[in-house]
Write a structure and sequence with these properties.
54% of the residues lie in helices and 7% in strands. With 244 residues, the protein is of the alpha+beta class. The chain has two domains: 72 residues, Glutaredoxin (3-Layer(aba) Sandwich); 143 residues, Glutathione S-transferase Yfyf (Class Pi), Chain A, domain 2. It has a four-stranded mixed beta sheet with strand order 2-1-3-4, with helices on one face. Strand 1, helix 1 and strand 2 form a beta-alpha-beta unit. Helix 4 packs antiparallel against helix 5 and helix 4 packs across helix 12. The longest helix is centred in the middle third of the chain and has 27 residues. The protein is globular and about 50 Å long.
């Protein structure tokens, strides 16, 4: 096993390569704040894959976390790593093995059943395809909502976890669907738990501190709405393949 070390000329043990607009990068950013880690934030343009950044993450994607000169990337893995290294509360993955497995099940569900459908709504240009995606999104969100704790405030109840982080990174961007596709989550009994959860999650200090400006996000997503975005996510939607 080859371990790569990086000298970033930083006095801090931890550096976060992030992009303000990226929901995947936001996950690691939130995790570091939740754990009260002292870190250096490095704003990074993932569309400009410089040799320097590719030396940190060969895939050229954010987030990437440098800890004591070693690189970790892939957003969910970053969150798990941060939770394991800094073991103070909050525990972003439950400590009990079964509950950890359940958390990972719902992380997987969001990654396969919520996020790709979100992008299909935004990116598809045919109205029939958009409407099909909207229907699928609501069906999947209803399934997810039924799994949210009845008492709340968070997905598993009192404890804020990785599931809340990953879901919130996209609920903060639902305004994109409303603006470009006239699509909103119905505020009815089916989604009562979801709206209760959303209010609590988006009021969390770490989420508020990392939330993108809504107007800037709309401007950023116009390329998705026009199906001209040049990203691995956009390419996956066009090709109907799995997300990167």
């Amino acid at each position: 096993v080859v371990t790569r070390h990086y000298n970033m000329a930083s006095k801090k043990d931890v550096q976060l390569y992030c992009a303000w607009f990226c929901p995947f990068a936001q996950r690691a950013w939130v995790a570091l704040l939740e754990k009260n880690v002292d870190f250096e934030y490095i704003e990074t343009d993932p569309y400009n894959k410089t040799p320097e950044f590719l030396a940190v993450n060969p895939r050229g994607l954010v987030p990437a976390v440098i800890h004591k000169g070693r690189a970790i990337y892939e957003s969910s893995i970053c969150v798990e790593y941060i939770d394991e290294v800094w073991q103070n509360e909050p525990h972003l993955l439950p400590t009990e093995p079964y509950e950890r497995a359940v958390a990972r099940i719902w992380v997987d569900f969001i990654g396969k059943k919520i996020i790709p459908v979100y992008y299909r709504i935004v990116q598809k240009q045919d109205k029939e395809e958009q409407d099909q995606a909207k229907e699928e999104f609501l069906k999947n969100l209803e399934t997810l909502t039924e799994a949210i704790s009845e008492t709340g405030p968070y997905f598993f109840g009192e404890n804020f976890t990785i599931v809340d982080i990953i879901l919130a990174s996209y609920t903060l961007r639902l305004n994109v669907l409303e603006f470009y596709r006239n699509f909103e989550i119905p505020n009815d009994s089916r989604f009562a738990r979801f709206f209760k959860w959303r209010e609590a999650a988006e009021a969390r200090p770490s989420i508020k501190a990392t939330a993108p400006d809504s107007e800037k996000i709309l401007a950023r997503y116009i390329h998705y709405a026009q199906n001209t975005a040049q990203s691995e996510v956009a390419d996956a939607i066009r090709k109907g393949t799995a997300f990167p």
